[in-house]
Design goal:
Layout (H helix, E strand, L loop, with lengths): L3 E5 L4 H12 L5 E4 L4 H11 L6 E4 L2 E4 L1 H9 L3 H10 L1
Parallel strand pairs: 1-2
Antiparallel strand pairs: 1-3, 3-4
Length: 88
């Protein structure tokens, strides 16, 4: 499987949904909580251009948030992306 990083906050329902979707796919991920950490939050904004969580990376590819992740899955592209990234 690919290397997956997800930036979250503990009380974010979209973060929970994204983690549940990834877990349902059998994907392991690194979770980084930005809750209460302004420096990390600013670093995330600099990296993604966004202030919201979750922000999801598959290897070096910025997927975006939960809606983006779900759209990939709905389009049938998420599984292939996870496998393709793992084979690369």
């Amino acid at each position: 499987m690919a290397s997956i990083t997800i930036y979250t906050k503990p009380t974010c329902p979209y973060c929970v949904a994204a983690k549940m979707l990834l877990q349902a796919k059998g994907a392991q991920f690194i979770e980084i909580s930005v809750q209460g950490d302004r420096v990390l939050g600013e670093a995330l904004r600099q990296r993604t251009g966004r202030r919201t969580v979750p922000q999801i990376y598959i290897d070096d590819h910025h997927v975006g948030g939960f809606d983006d992740l779900r759209a990939l899955d709905d389009a049938g592209r998420l599984d292939g992306m996870l496998v393709r990234e793992a084979l690369a």
